Amino acid sequence: MAGTNLSYPYDEEIFNYSWKMTPDVVLTSMLASGAVVVDPEIANLISKGSNYFVTPFYNLLDGEEQDYNGVTDFVETATTGGSMAGAVYGRMKAWKAISFISDFNSGADPMQQIVAGVANYWQKKRQERLIKILDAVFSITGDADWATHTIDLVTTTTSVVDANRVGETTINNAIVSASGDNAGGYSLAIMHSVVANRLANLQLLNYSKYTDASGIQRALPLGTINGITVLINDNVTVTTNATDATAKDYSTYLLGQGAIRYAQAPVDKPSEMDRDPVTAGGVDMIYTRMREVMHPYGFSFVGDVATDVSVPDAVLTASASYERKMPAQSIKMVKLLTNG
Q1: Which CATH architecture is the domain 2-58+80-338 placed in?
Q2: N or C: which end of the chain has fewer CB within 10 A?
Q3: pLDDT band with cut points at 50, 70 and 90 for residue 112
Q4: Which whole number is the average pLDDT over 296-319?
Q5: What is the helix (H) or strand (E) element at residue 172, kind and residue range?
């Protein structure tokens, strides 16, 4: 509904449309890589407002071939599969007008600046949450087959040497080690800036760039290496090396086609404005809400979705909330641990 708030004309429909249409170069790149895919089946299942869904999966066809000789009868092999469950999480955030004072003083289009700020906030939160979900599935214990998808180079020696760091063949070797003859189709790497910088210094990684509204070319937190899209994010897990306290162990996540299934869930009012004329002599506020799915393909969500229907991060990103359902070698995810 049109009106005036935060000292400028505000229309809820225009705001929500602008928020939705604000470019997210990171999500766009992840979708373009194919490692993150928008799943219409999940979107349909949650379109009525549920926070839990179940989808089927089918294993690859197998069985022994037979001779075709005009005499032998067919012997059928039954197809196999199963189902995977996933969760929809919901989050919300509000800001007071004071958060946007600098925006009001810096441009002629304050509404667009606030839209961009809101969109950027939720984009960063989505990236952080994806990394936490990946940490959760790679922290699953008691699964020997899945443990082979964590390639640990930091415990191979007692000191930090080049063998512990990422190099020209490290990523490809890790993928083949984990996935064997199913190693094709890996298309996304999520890594710390230290790891990305080492690859850049080795002239193996090319940073992506864009031209801003002023015509200035700027670097993006994105790049490519051997045809794999690289997302650079310092929220990946970093720990102190066990044998050398001056060194850090960096996690890099390698994802293949369709590794993460994504869908947006319906929200009746994604945003709204309000004014409190009493507090502090008058405060303007903006409220935002979102619900979505980021689900690691090949795993079933077994966490609690009833106690808190928003599925808080304490549940969503806990390793105990995930159970592997598909054969490990068919899951296109690898975690690589290096010293940089």
Answers
A1: Alpha-Beta Complex (3.90)
A2: N
A3: low
A4: 96
A5: helix 170-179
pLDDT given at position 241: 82
The whole-number pLDDT of residue 318 equals 97
The DSSP H or E segment spanning 144 is helix 144-147
Return the number of other C-beta atoms located less than 10 Å from residue 40's C-beta: 9
C-alpha–C-alpha distance, residues 340 and 338, integer Å: 5
| Tokens (6 digits) for 207 | 């940073």
Q: Are strands 52-58 and 81-87 parallel, antiparallel or unpaired?
A: antiparallel
As given in the structure block, the two tokens for residue 11 are 């229309």
pLDDT band at residue 2 under the 50/70/90 scheme: very low
Buried b / exposed e over 215-245, threshold 16 CB at 10 Å, is eeeeeebbbbbeebbbbbbeebbeeebeebe
Residue with tokens 């939720």: 122
What's the CA gap between 160 and 33, in Å, rounded?
32
Helix (H, G, I), strand (E, B) or coil at 265: coil
pLDDT tens figures, 47-105: 988 899 998 877 777 778 887 888 888 888 777 777 889 999 999 998 776 444 444 45
Q: What is the pLDDT of residue 156?
A: 57
Residues 7/104, Cβ–Cβ less than 8 Å: yes
Structure tokens at 315: 């549940």
3-state DSSP call for residue 102?
helix
- Candidates 25, 58, 24; CA nearest to 41 is 58
Tokens of 147: 């443990």
For residues 275 and 237, give the distance between their C-alpha atoms in angstroms, rounded to a whole number.
40
Instruction: Specify which residues 211 forms β-bridges with.
Output: 217
- C-alpha 62/C-alpha 330 separation (Å) is 14
Say what the pLDDT of residue 181 is: 85
Query: Hey, where are the domains in the chain?
Result: 2-58+80-338
Nearest to 237 by CA among 217, 223, 252: 252
